[in-house]
Amino acid sequence: MSKELRNLAIIAHVDHGKTTLVDAMFKQSGLFRDNQHMDVCAMDYNDLERERGITILAKCTSFEWNDIKLNIVDTPGHADFGGEVERILSMVEGVLLLVDASEGPMPQTKFVLTKALALGLCPIVVVNKVDKPDARVDEVIDEIFDLFVALGASEKQLDFPIIYASGRNGWAVKNLNDERKDLTPLLKTILEHISSPEIDNDAPLQMLVTMLDYDQYLGRVLTGKILKGAASINSPVHAIRGNSGIVEKSRLTKLLSFEGLKRIPIEHVECGDIVAIAGLQVATVADTIASTEILTPIKALPIDPPTLSMIFSINDSPLAGQEGKKLTSRMIWDRLQKEAEGNISISVKRSNEQDSFEVAGRGELQLGILIETMRREGFELSISRPHVLYKTDDATGQRLEPIEELYIDLDDEFTGVIVEKITMRKGSLLDMRPCGIGKTRLQFSIPTRGLIGYHSEFLTDTRGTGIMNRLFSGYEPHKGSIEGRTKGVLVSNAAGNAVPYALFFLEERGTLFINPGDPVYEGLIIGEHSKGNELDVNPTKTKQLTNMRASGKDDNIKLSPPRLISLEQALSYIQDDELVEVTPGAIRLRKRYLDQITRKKMSRSK
C-alpha cells in the first residue's frame, strides 16, 4: 500500500528564511542523527548560492513525519529566477508563504503569491523571525491580508491559517503566547490544510517535466510529478512536446525518489509522487512523459517572457587563452544551449555578429549568475552591455518597453536625493510611507533600462544602507531617452604590465581599476576619468634613467587602493562601445575596438 503524501512548496522574498526553515524540518523529522554534522542552509549546496546567501535553483526534498511523506520544494525568492517558481507551483497542492516579521510583504512576496493564487492554491502564512527585536507582527499580518485582497484572492484563500515561527531556532506556534518548543504546530497545520494529491494508479502514466539536471553517472535526469498512473523500471514511454508531437521514445532506465538531500533509486513510482527519471535523451522541461497509448501532452503553464538581453562572444583580447581552456564559439554555443534547455526563462539565439550569441533572460542577476557559472567552468567570454527587449503594440504601432515596480527602503535623510535620481531615470513615485523609526519605503514605476547600472550609484548615495527590490510589472509606451554614464574612462594605449610610476601620475586623472603589475593592452579600460571624456593613457611608462646622480633619494611612490569591480557592477558600468572580458582569473573592462584609430573612425561614422 502506498504511503500517504503531501506535496508543498515554500515561497517567500529573498532572505526571509525559506531554506533555514527546511533545515529545521530536516533535523526534527529524524532525517539526521543527533550527532550528525549538518551544514547551515544545507539546501543551498551550489557554491554561488552559499556565497550570495540566496536560492538560485529550485530543489526537491522529502522526509517523513508521523508516517506521512512530505515532498517539499525550496523555491528561489528573486524575480529573476521566476521561471523556476512558476514551474514548481504546478506540481504541488499547497504552499507555505514565509514573511519576515520585521520587513513584511516585499516585492518578491507579491510575485510568488500572485503565481500561487492564480493556480488556486491556498497558502499557509508563516510569519518568520518573530523573535527579532524589531518585529511588528500585527502590522505585518494586516499587510499580508491587504496583499491577498489586492491580488484578488478568493474567500477560501483569504481564510488562511497563520503560524508564528523562528526557523533559525527551530520552533513554531499558533499563538504568540504558546510554548516555543519545536515545529510540531507547523507540521500539524500542513497535514490539516494541504490535501493529498489525487491518486489514479490504474490510468496510463502521465508526468509533466518541471526540472532538468545532469548526473555524471545517469546523464540527463528529469524531475516532475506523476499526475496519472504508475511506472516501473524499464517501462516503455515516449515524450510529447506541445505542437511538435512525439519527440522521443525510450524506456525508464532509472527511477529515483527524494529522501532528504539525496535521490534514492527505487523500482516503482506511483501517482501523486514527485520523482526523478533517467533514460531519455531529448525530452526537456515542459514536455510530457507518458505511456505509449497517450498522445496528448499535458498543458504547461506559460512563462513570463525575458526582458533583458546581452551578447556573449568569444574573447578576442591579446590576453585570450592565458587563463581559460574553453575558448571557441562552438564550446560557448553548446554550453548556452544546455542552459536554455534546463532553464526555460532563458532564450539563446545566434547574433548578427560573427562568433557571438544573444542571450535573453529576466534580469541582470540571472544573466550574471550564468556568466559567473561559465567563468568557473573555464570559459573565456566577452559580454556586451545589457539591453532591454522592446515590443510593438499591434493596434497603435507604438514601441513598448518593460516597466518595473521598484521598492526602496532607506534612511529618511537620503529620501530627497534618491527621488531626484529615480526621476531623472524616468521613474514615477507611486507611494511613500514610513517603515520604521527613521526609515522610509518608496515605491516607483520605472523603465527597466532606467535601472541598468544604477545599483552601485544607489549604494553610494545611501552610504550602503539602502535596500532596493524590483518586480516586473508589464509593458508601457517608451518613456524617452535616459542620460547614461556621466564620466569618461581612462583607456590604455600600450601593452605590457602596469608600472607604479605611471599609475602614480594617472591617479590625479581619475579612479584606477588596476594594480601595479597587472597585465594591460591597448584598448583596456584601466580607470574612470574624473571628466566626461575618454582619455588615452600609458600605464606602462617608466621613469627615464640618466647618468646624473640624484641629489636626494627618489620619492617613495604610494598608490591608493584601486576600485575593484564585481561582475554585476562591470556589466552595468560599460557603455555600448565597451565590453566586459570574463576569464576564470579576472574581470576586465575593455573597448569593443581596441585600436585607437579604429575607435575614432567608428565614433565619427555613428
Overall average residue pLDDT: 84
Radius of gyration: 27 Å
CATH topology category name of the largest domain: Rossmann fold
Number of helices: 15
Helix content: 10-25%
Global geometry = globular
How many extended strands?
Answer: 35
Largest sheet: 11 strands, mixed
Head-to-tail CA distance between termini: 73 Å
The CATH architecture term of the largest domain is: 3-Layer(aba) Sandwich
Low-confidence stretches: 33-46, 52-56
Going by CATH, the homologous superfamily of the largest domain would be P-loop containing nucleotide triphosphate hydrolases
Description of the structure:
Strands 18, 19, 20, 21, 22, 28, 30, 32, 33, 34 and 35 form an eleven-stranded mixed sheet that branches. An eight-stranded antiparallel sheet has the order 12-11-17-8-9-16-13-14. It has about 600 residues and is an alpha+beta fold. It contains 15 helices and 35 strands. The longest helix is centred in the N-terminal third of the chain and has 14 residues, at about 135-150.
